[in-house]
């Protein structure tokens, strides 16, 4: 970006911020963040239980930048969420019914595909 373009860009940001809007400015601290899409989440929240949301966030934390497939054992999910096996199983069923995840593979090597409609991993 040329100095003139940069100056115009900074002026545009200043005008936007003066009018009460916020501009996202990435920093080094943003590495490995998780994007959560607010419109989709607003539609999901009235339908989802707290335990299912907790399991979804645990799975979302394991997403890769270019991959929506997460491999976690039920025990790892239980450890991450402090939920019982029965509660985790129920939450996974709920997430699948809501089409937030889909499960693939056998139980002992289970993989979960997370819908990109709700969450995506930020670039690290």
Task: Set out the fold topology.
Layout (H helix, E strand, L loop, with lengths): L2 H16 L15 E3 L1 H7 L5 H11 L8 E3 L2 H8 L3 H13 L3 E4 L6 E4 L4 E3 L3
Antiparallel strand pairs: 1-5, 2-4, 3-4
Helix pairs in contact: 3-5
What does this structure look like?
With 124 residues, the chain is an alpha+beta fold. It has a single domain (28-121), classed as Orthogonal Bundle (Arc Repressor Mutant, subunit A). It contains five helices and five strands; from the N terminus they run αβααβααβββ. The strands form two sheets. Strands 2-4-3 form a three-stranded antiparallel sheet. It is elongated, with a radius of gyration of 19 Å.
Note the gap between the termini. Answer: 23 Å
What is the name of the CATH architecture? Answer: Orthogonal Bundle
CATH topology: Arc Repressor Mutant, subunit A
Structure classification: alpha+beta
Give me the Rg, rounded. 19 Å
The helix/strand series, from N terminus to C terminus, equals HEHHEHHEEE
Tell me the overall shape. elongated
Please give the number of β-strands.
5
- With strands numbered from the N-terminus, the spatial order across the biggest sheet is 2-4-3
In terms of DSSP E residues, the strand content is 5-15%
What is the helix content? 40-55%
With helices defined by DSSP (H or I, 4 residues minimum), what is the helix count?
A: 5
What is the typical, i.e. mean, pLDDT?
A: 82
What is the CATH domain class? Answer: Mainly Alpha
Q: List low-pLDDT spans.
A: none
Number of domains: 1
CATH superfamily: Winged helix-like DNA-binding domain superfamily/Winged helix DNA-binding domain
Largest sheet: 3 strands, antiparallel
């Amino acid at each position: 970006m040329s100095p003139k373009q940069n100056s115009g860009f900074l002026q545009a940001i200043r005008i936007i911020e003066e009018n009460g809007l916020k501009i996202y400015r990435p920093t080094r601290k943003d590495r490995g963040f998780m994007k959560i899409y607010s419109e989709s989440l607003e539609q999901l929240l009235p339908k989802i239980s707290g335990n299912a949301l907790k399991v979804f966030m645990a799975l979302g934390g394991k997403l890769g930048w270019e991959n929506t497939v997460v491999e976690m054992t039920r025990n790892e999910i239980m450890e991450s969420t402090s939920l019982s096996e029965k509660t985790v199983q129920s939450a996974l069923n709920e997430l699948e019914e809501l089409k937030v995840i889909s499960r693939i593979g056998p139980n002992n090597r289970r993989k979960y595909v997370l819908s990109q409609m709700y969450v995506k991993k930020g670039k690290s």
